Amino acid sequence: MNPTRDLKRYPGFGGITWACLVFLYGPLIVIALYSFNEIRSITVWGGFSFSWYVKAFNNDLIQRATYNSLIIAVSAATASTICATAAALAILRNRAFRGREASIGIISLPLMVPEIVTAIASLVFFVLVGIPLGIGSILLAHTVFCIPFAYLPITARLEGIEGHYEEAARDLYADSWQTFRYVMLPMMFPGIVAGFMLAFIISLDDFIITNFVAGPGATTLPLAIYGLVRTGLTPEINAVSTLLLLVSIFFVTLSYLLGKKPGPGR
Predict the structure, then answer these.
(1) 57-to-54, 67, 227 alpha-carbon distances in Å
(2) What are the boundaries of each domain within the chain?
(3) Is domain 53-259 in CATH 1.10.3720.10, yes or no?
(4) Dihedral pair phi/psi, residue 96, rounded to 5°
(5) φ and ψ at 132, to 5 degrees?
(6) Sequence-separated (6 or more) residues with CB below 8 Å from residue 184
(7) H-type helices in 35-114, by residue range?
(8) What is the pLDDT along the chain (266 residues), one digit of tens a residue?
(9) Which residue, among 129, 131, 110, has the nearest Cα to 215 in the 3D structure?
(10) What is the secondary structure of 5-50 as a DSSP string?
(11) d(C-alpha 10, C-alpha 13), whole Å
């Protein structure tokens, strides 16, 4: 690379980079640190303690919200991963399929449309159709919204699988289901798991869509955190936010590592 075109050599570029990192991740570090504060203050350090984590685990509202979030996230991730897997196989492996480009665009649409627009559209649709707002409406909205997130790693994995594996299975008299179950599914499995994890964490962390389509009593963990913040910041909120952040980092990192795992024949 030409040294004159290396961005790292431009004056001030390193300082701007560090400033952006501090601006983005500094508040997260502060929240994590003050979640261990012994006193109630979120600005004055009073000693190290796990008491706010204990209070968070014993909070009935947080317990119910966490349970709802896990049920919705697991269900939505499972449904969206199944739909994404079927879509990937149909688009990439069906040569007679003529609507490939249009289908890819439709699947990718939730990634391009602002989430607030998706939330309003989902709410209007549920009201027009007559679907009651609650856990079910959140699950439906999350499933549709998470499909493209599950689709991307599954497609990336499927594109790395050569077609001769399927041809060999058919030469051995395997039907379509046997080819998928015994040949394609094991090779696609890392991508499917990566897609599931990504969809799971997207659903678990979602606030905007959930806030619009949630009914009375259908409180998820992000909604519970928002409700607690409106009554005042406490280290208990910092503790819950830190745990949610750690879970998100874990699943996103694991999804990335699984997606980078070399495919067959590489």
Answers:
(1) 5, 12, 17
(2) 3-51, 53-259
(3) yes
(4) -85, -5
(5) -65, 145
(6) 89, 161, 165, 166
(7) 51-57, 60-93, 100-112
(8) 455 566 566 677 778 888 888 888 888 888 888 888 888 877 778 888 888 888 888 888 889 999 999 999 999 999 999 999 999 888 887 766 677 778 888 888 888 888 999 999 999 999 999 999 999 999 999 999 999 999 999 998 888 877 777 778 777 777 778 878 888 888 888 889 999 999 999 999 999 999 999 988 888 999 998 888 887 777 888 888 888 888 888 888 887 787 666 666 55
(9) 131
(10) G-GGGSTTHHHHHHHHHHHHHHHHHHHHHHTTBSSS-SSS---B-S
(11) 6
Distances (CA, A) of 93 to 144, 149, 161: 23, 20, 11
232, 36 contact by CB (below 8 A)? no
Nearest to 236 by CA among 24, 30, 39: 39
The residue behind tokens 């979120």 is 42
User: Counting Cβ atoms within 10 Å, is residue 188 exposed (0-12), middle (13-18) or buried (19+)?
Assistant: buried
Helix (H, G, I), strand (E, B) or coil at 131: coil
Q: Kindly tell me the number of DSSP H helices and DSSP E strands found in the chain.
A: 12, 0
Contact present, 243 and 231 (Cβ < 8 Å): no
Question: For residues 122-136, b (16+ Cβ closer than 10 Å) or e, as one string?
Answer: bbeebeeeeeebbbe
